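Sharing a chain and its predicted structure for anyone who wants a worked example. Both blocks are below, sequence first, tokens second.
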Amino acid sequence: MIARTVDRRRASARHAARGLSIVELMIGITISLFILAGATMVLTSQLGDNRRLLLEAQVQQDLRAAADMISRDIRRAGYWGKAHCSVWPAANCALTNNPYTAMNPQSSTVLAPATAVVYDRSTDEEDGRVIGTDDNLVDGAANRPREQVGFRWNADNRTIDYLVGAGNWQALTDAAVLQVTQFDMVITARDLPMPCGAGACPVLGPGGCPLFLRSRDVAFTIVARAVHDANVRRSMRDNVRLRNTVPTEVCPAPAGP
């Protein structure tokens, strides 16, 4: 009787200590895999969102830097250290017409969007030169700053290029970071009456017609996408009023018969 009781206790102990069954183990592993898959999906989504945010910030920052440089530089188009000679010629005015008004494409009327613009601006007063010592020539000498500059869309490299001197185009945007898919400019001009104060004002040009100030604006649009994710796209628009107005003579249309 005592032996049977001991055997039953031993059998009961062996039955209680045998551990998990294969079915229980498989169910536990399956539940763990589902939890692990969910956590992996959440982590992957967060990493993807973080990567996209970084790309968007980088593209936006590069576009803004390019737009700021274009705005600052193109605003100086037509600068001449002796601009007063166009209106009030003085004794030291060897030239009365601004030689730096060239802007290609020309801005006499509203033009269709262009993908390049080249213009002139004087830099002769730089490097410690005395103000007003402009030589009145668009130069390209190697020992001083170039006076012909511009911007264009390079469709092959998908970049915006900057003209530094005649024929010297350099990439302004980084082709390894973003691809510029659109860069166009619209140049407009309007003639404003010449302001005259209480004193004498040369309101007539060489042909005897009234003088006007030609005010020019450049509106440009940049559209770009990230190189590593084509879905990350950004655009930038700006309108620049050129600081240097150009005096121009406007004669009235002849009267009809």
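Comments welcome. Strands lie at 103-104, 116-120, 148-154, 159-164, 169-171, 178-193, 211-226, 233-241, 246-249.
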